[in-house]
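Service request form, structural biology core

Requester: graduate student, group of Dr. S.
Request type: structure prediction, single chain
Budget code: on file
Notes: please return the result as structure tokens.

Sequence provided:
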Amino acid sequence: MSGYGTGGGAEELTFAALPPVRGGSFTRTWWGRAWLKALEDTALDGQQVKEGRRHARAGAVGAVSVRPGRITAVVQDRDGTAYRSDVLVRVLADEEWDRLLDLAAGSAGHIAALLDHEVPPHLVEDAAAVGVELLPGIGDLEPECGCEAWDHCPHTTALCHQVARLLDEDPFVLLLMRGRGQRAVVDALQARSAARAAGLNPADGPAGPAGGAEAAPAGVSAAEAYALCGILPPLPAVPVPAAEPGEPPSLDTETDPDPGVEPAALEFLAADAAARAHRLLVELLAGRAGEAAEPSVGQDAVRLAAGGPPSWVAARLAARTGRSRAGLDAAVRAWRWGGAPALAVLDGEWVPDGEALARAATRLAAAWDEGEAPELSRSGACWTAGDAGVQLRLGEDGRWWPYRRVGDEWRPAGPADRDPAAAFTTAETAEAG
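Core staff response, request fulfilled:
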């Protein structure tokens, strides 16, 4: 298959009309500039090319349809007269596609870029070396316009200029014009890569080479791998995160939500997700990111409550986790002091064994000078000084968590400490609220 027309693929993409170009370069990428240079090199009338550029800059080109072998748009003249303009593009023959895909599958740089949905600029030169011209040459672009011009007119050249801007966004548009869309190219490339990895020639089919003998994988030569160092672009600069997380969109619209959907609750969850994403990004870029355990439903409910939700959201979180409002408040205080480990201590999820109790007794005995230790009574993992209204709770990691009595309840009073005396002092000096 070769020549002009729709080619063998049924894929078609339609791009919305682009806004006018206000000053500066018409295109901003290598692909856009290469397309325009090819157009200028092959056009017979340079004046028509300049006029078409003015049309495109002014936003006179409507939506652009791209399919194998043809690009189409409606272009307006300065007087408002509209013309349907088509440019037919030579479609690559099947054998040309085979050479192009074999070339890409044989290069680590090409295959990595294409499978990542990028078209590397150096593919043009490499393809030309095997007889496949990706960019248009003389005779590759055939105009058809409602203005009945016999050659390229301002309308068809304006359409070609608009295609340059489309290539800025997606170089695969060029491959679609040449006969195959992105999905077809990537699928064919993956099939060739899998065949190479299995030591097969893609042309041999699933049965392998004649005779059933398995060929050794071709691999990549050291020279080719080393050469990629000078071809692959440098890594982008590390992004600088915004100072604050973004604001989620408002869901308060005139349209009634579906039953069971509460826009206010969704807005709260969206804001929480944005804040968490921002924090994770900042930690990652600062080199502080680590693997955090997935919180349980109960832990995540307390985490959400610690974010200061509306009162009705807090009430719902308390009800769904089986806590009273006072219990949720205590859980929020624990979470703010130490996250999931602090919450586990509040809920008494761990009971120390004999060895842990012996270590705790040693630490308590060494924490105070003789005669200065408070009188503590133990119950489970809690050591209580009733007359002082202070309690120390031992965590599974060996740290001591300070608690203070408020009315009939024990409330978290501060962060954990390895020194039980320091934790006791924190609880003594904590505010009663």
